[in-house]
Design a protein that fits this description.
Blueprint (H helix, E strand, L loop, with lengths): L12 H5 L26 H20 L6 H4 L3 E3 L4 H4 L9 H19 L3 H22 L2 E2 L11 H4 L3 E2 L1 H21 L15 H18 L5 H14 L10 E4 L21 H4 L1 E3 L1 H9 L4 H5 L7 E3 L8 E4 L2 E4 L61 E5 L1 H13 L8 H15 L6 H4 L11 H11 L5 H10 L23 H6 L1 H10 L29
Parallel strand pairs: 6-8
Antiparallel strand pairs: 1-5, 2-3, 4-9, 7-8
Length: 547
């Protein structure tokens, strides 16, 4: 059955609004809807559906599209208008209120499931809680955790929750995932359609919990190596984790209206396709995929509409289009202008300035974001739904690459690093319906296993298309892939965290100072000081990574 957000339509929005507290985690007022219901009456399955769908959409929004931070950061794409926040890392006032709102709904679902002795939904809620809190500490560092969801109890520590340190949050995430996995051992689902990801398949949920454990054990491996190694080895020994792409935690889109459709599609784009057209391929990603002869490029990118060609015989007409090719005499190109004459795919270089829409001699630069000489995303991303248009929360390919890295560390994970690396490449190709290319691709000169961590992480970066926040996590702790900030970036290094928002600084000022003190100011922190995208959280301190 399709993992679709269709199920959420069965839940009246009036029911769901009730359970979303106000934006800040330290406020306790409940938005009361007279036509809704009360927390002690709501069906926890409906809340579970809501949290699953909204969490997946929030995750995709952070990663991809005209407002996604991580696709431009990890140089999969570049935006060619309104781009400085994304291409150039002008990060400020980044709020976590949407994530905490989901956590509060999820907490209500857990409490109701506990009252109903519904252990399956309890396990699902613990897994979702771990996913969201893990993302929060990944992005910001220290955060309200142990007291964050207790505003209804009153008292200063619940209304204005203290910040837990990042290590404690990671340990809490791991503990909750371990508890969820244990619950799934004996849980019996009472639902089907309400479970958007797996339709009540408890075995897949246990695999998901354990696969997320693998993610977070590797995340902390530089700081807590013994805990990480033991955890990874125990999960591998259990055999309960993602085995192939059929286990991937994904969510499809129904495509009936803007809210349940792939973001930036043309059918529901209220700005006549601008959001789709703003997103262009990045030259770093395009060049890498082309040098690897990677078949995924044709799945993710469109070929340039009008290639450029130099022709020194055209002095009388130095710039003209003939048979779909723009022929230009060298003398008509302004000095210092960079021109890409590829006839297939052309990406925009990272952080090239205020007007990336000018790139490659675009004849109509500016807000219209048309550019026939640069590659858009593939045409499938114009659609509201499709077989390959899905949120990918964690995949078998990611798990395989985690285990390849574990093998490189000398951990006991059953197979050697090459075997896991090859499995990861194959799983990614199969997830994009390109499995028939595997035998040829894996023997390519830049793809055939060479025994290096850089190669493993680079392939993991490629496989993270539409979910590159995971590539950012890997870059932060390994320095791979070896991406360079572009010439107009805010700093000549990639950032390593989100900043605490002004609303949090103002409303929870008595507690946030400890979180700021826990950050390590670096040579790149600049005028923002501790609360800078270039200040290091606990996870990176003392590692020398990524710079």
């Amino acid at each position: 059955m399709m993992k679709s957000i269709k199920r959420i339509l069965k839940v009246g929005l009036s029911l769901l609004v009730l359970f979303t507290f106000s934006c800040e985690d330290h406020l306790t007022d409940l938005n009361v809807n007279p036509n809704g219901t009360t927390p002690d009456e709501v069906n926890p399955a409906f809340l579970m559906t809501y949290v699953q769908t909204e969490m997946a959409k929030e995750y995709l929004t952070l990663n991809y599209g005209e407002s996604g931070y991580f696709s431009p950061l990890m140089q999969h794409v570049q935006l060619d208008s309104h781009s400085k926040k994304y291409n150039d890392y002008q990060w400020s006032d980044l709020s976590w209120s949407e994530l905490y709102a989901l956590l509060r709904n999820n907490e209500t679902a857990y409490q109701r499931a506990e009252e109903n002795e519904d252990t399956f939904i309890m396990g699902v809620s613990l897994t979702l809680k771990s996913y969201i809190f893990g993302l929060i500490t990944d992005l910001w560092g220290d955060a309200p955790y142990s007291s964050a969801l207790h505003g209804d109890l009153g008292g200063d520590d619940n209304m204005y929750p203290p910040y837990d340190d990042q290590e404690s949050i990671y340990r809490g995430v791991i503990d909750n995932l371990e508890e969820a996995s244990e619950i799934f051992e004996t849980a019996i689902p009472r639902i089907d359609k309400e479970d958007v990801y797996y339709q009540g398949d408890v075995e897949k949920w246990q695999k998901l919990a354990n696969s997320l454990l693998l993610r977070y054990y590797m995340r902390i491996s530089s700081k807590l190596p013994e805990l990480a190694q033991t955890g990874v080895e125990d999960i591998v020994a259990s055999g309960i984790y993602f085995q192939d792409e059929n286990d991937d935690a994904t969510m499809d889109f129904l495509g009936t209206k803007e809210e349940d459709s792939w973001p930036g599609n043309l059918e529901y784009d209220r700005t006549s396709g601008t959001n789709y057209r703003r997103v262009k391929m990045c030259s770093v990603f395009v060049d890498t995929l082309e040098s690897y002869d990677d078949p995924r490029l044709e799945i993710w990118a469109s070929r340039v509409e009008i290639p450029i060609s130099f022709d020194e015989t055209m002095s009388s007409n130095p710039d003209t289009i003939i048979d779909g090719v723009r022929y230009i005499h060298q003398s008509s190109i302004p000095e210092g202008t960079q021109v890409d004459t590829s006839s297939n795919y052309v990406g925009i270089p990272p952080s090239i300035g205020n007007e990336p829409s000018w790139y490659n001699l675009n004849p109509t630069p500016g807000q219209e974001v048309f550019n026939p000489h640069v590659s858009y995303l593939h045409e499938r991303y114009q659609n509201p739904t499709g077989d390959l248009l899905k949120v990918r929360l964690i995949s078998a390919a990611e798990v395989d690459f985690i285990l390849a890295e574990a093998a490189l560390k000398g951990w006991n994970v059953n197979d050697d690093a090459e075997t896991w690396y090859n499995k990861g490449v194959k799983a990614s190709l199969e997830a994009w319906e390109l499995g028939t290319f595997y035998d040829e691709y894996i023997t390519g000169p830049k793809v055939a296993y060479d025994g290096t961590l850089e190669q493993v992480i680079t392939q993991k970066w490629i496989a993270s298309w539409t979910c590159p926040v995971e590539a950012w996590m890997d870059y932060r702790r390994t320095g791979y892939p070896a991406l360079k900030a572009g010439p107009e970036a805010e700093r000549n290094r990639l950032p390593v965290r989100f900043v605490y928002s002004s609303e949090e600084l103002n409303l929870n000022s008595k507690n946030i100072q400890k979180a700021l003190d826990d950050l390590e100011e670096t040579n790149f922190s600049g005028a923002q000081g501790k609360n800078s995208p270039w200040s290091k959280p606990w996870l990176l301190q003392g590692t020398g990574k990524p710079w």
